[in-house]
Amino acid sequence: MSPSRRAGSRPPFRLPRVAALTPGRGGQPRLLIDAPSGAAEIYLHGAHLTSWIPRGGDEALFTSRRAVFDGETAIRGGVPLCLPWFASGPDGERRPSHGWARIMEWELRCVESRPDGAVRVLMALEHDGLSLLYEIGVGQELELSLSIGNRGAAPRSVEAALHTYLRVGDVTAVRIIGLEGCEYADKVAGGAVSVQTGPLGVRGPVDRIYESGAPTTVLDPALDRRVRVSPTGAAQTVVWNPWSSGAAALADMAEEEFPTMVCVETARLGRSAALLEMGETMAMGARIAVEHL
Ligand SMILES: O=P(O)(O)OC[C@H]1O[C@H](O)[C@H](O)[C@@H](O)[C@@H]1O
């Protein structure tokens, strides 16, 4: 066990009684929240939220039963943080895929109960000249806020995505609303650019980068609910479902799991990447709400 892991496992502050830091899957350090307005599970590896259950509701996030919890691999599901680049980055040559933030251990800075029955969790990571702060509000709604500061000696460009895996009942019955009229790059079609007409349905592999930072709603009749994703500070929304063919190629996702998830990712990518001057900070976030149909 690395010294940083030992340090990260024992926060130098008292946790509120609605929170516990216990070993999770694979023995990995994990924060459990069970608050009056919602419950959640957050791994320090990647500051990775793997579960959120608003009080009175059901699990809102998808995490694969084949997800790997070894403190090295990115966890398949929940909310991976793609940072400071997305996929292989703007030049197509960056490694690891989706950046280093999702595969490093974050420091737990603060966990506090809020008067509205929610819990606020603050996590931090300093690496490669960047200072990252990630605030997760666990309650009836889920609030995700990222702050990215350039502490290096030169301006730099930063891509970011909150790669939210939403749990759905049947992805083939899902309709995603809010992207109508938006241009998108279709990665399944080699990056061809199209314009969305009508609500988005999933009838095969979907991997699209929409030029939209506006709210979207995932209508999920099979679970009798709608999930609203409301971004702030974003320029793109990525929608991904690997379908059976894509899932079969992933070691950490079962082929038959694809109908139960869809990723709706809040992002700033490519030409919309944040150009941060020395000392400058940018913020991006998303608020997620689940409602009955
Ligand atoms: O397998 P991962 O590295 O976690 O990436 C999973 C997916 O992330 C995003 O949605 C990308 O647009 C996809 O192209 C990629 O397949």
Describe how the helices and strands are arranged.
Layout: H1 3-9, E1 19-23, E2 29-35, E3 38-43, E4 48-54, E5 81-82, E6 107-113, E7 119-127, E8 130-138, E9 142-150, E10 156-158, E11 160-162, E12 165-167, E13 175-177, E14 183-186, E15 192-195, E16 200-201, E17 206-210, E18 216-220, E19 225-232, E20 236-241, H2 243-248, E21 261-268, E22 274-276, E23 281-292
Antiparallel strand pairs: 1-2, 2-3, 3-4, 5-11, 6-7, 7-8, 8-9, 9-23, 10-22, 11-21, 12-21, 13-16, 13-18, 14-15, 14-17, 17-20, 18-19, 19-23, 20-21
Bound molecules: 6-O-phosphono-alpha-D-glucopyranose.
6-O-phosphono-alpha-D-glucopyranose is lined by residues 74, 87, 97-98, 187, 207, 238, 240, 263.
Region (Disordered): 1-20
Enzyme class: isomerase
Active site: 163, 265
Explain what you see.
The protein is mainly β and 293 residues long. The chain has one domain: Beta-galactosidase, Chain A, domain 5, CATH 2.70.98.10. Helix content is 4%, strand content 44%. It has 2 helices and 23 strands. The protein has helices at 3-9, 243-248, and strands at residues 19-23, 29-35, 38-43, 48-54, 81-82, 107-113, 119-127, 130-138, 142-150, 156-158, 160-162, 165-167, 175-177, 183-186, 192-195, 200-201, 206-210, 216-220, 225-232, 236-241, 261-268, 274-276, 281-292. The strands form 4 sheets. Strands 6-7-8-9-23-19-18-13-16 form a 9-stranded antiparallel sheet. Strands 5, 11, 12, 14, 15, 17, 20 and 21 form an 8-stranded antiparallel sheet that branches. A hairpin with a 4-residue loop joins strand 18 (216-220) and strand 19 (225-232). The protein is globular, with a radius of gyration of 18 Å. The structure holds 6-O-phosphono-alpha-D-glucopyranose. Residues 74, 87, 97-98, 187, 207, 238, 240, 263 line the site of 6-O-phosphono-alpha-D-glucopyranose. 6-O-phosphono-alpha-D-glucopyranose (G6P) binds at residues 74, 87, 97-98, 187, 207, 238, 240, 263.
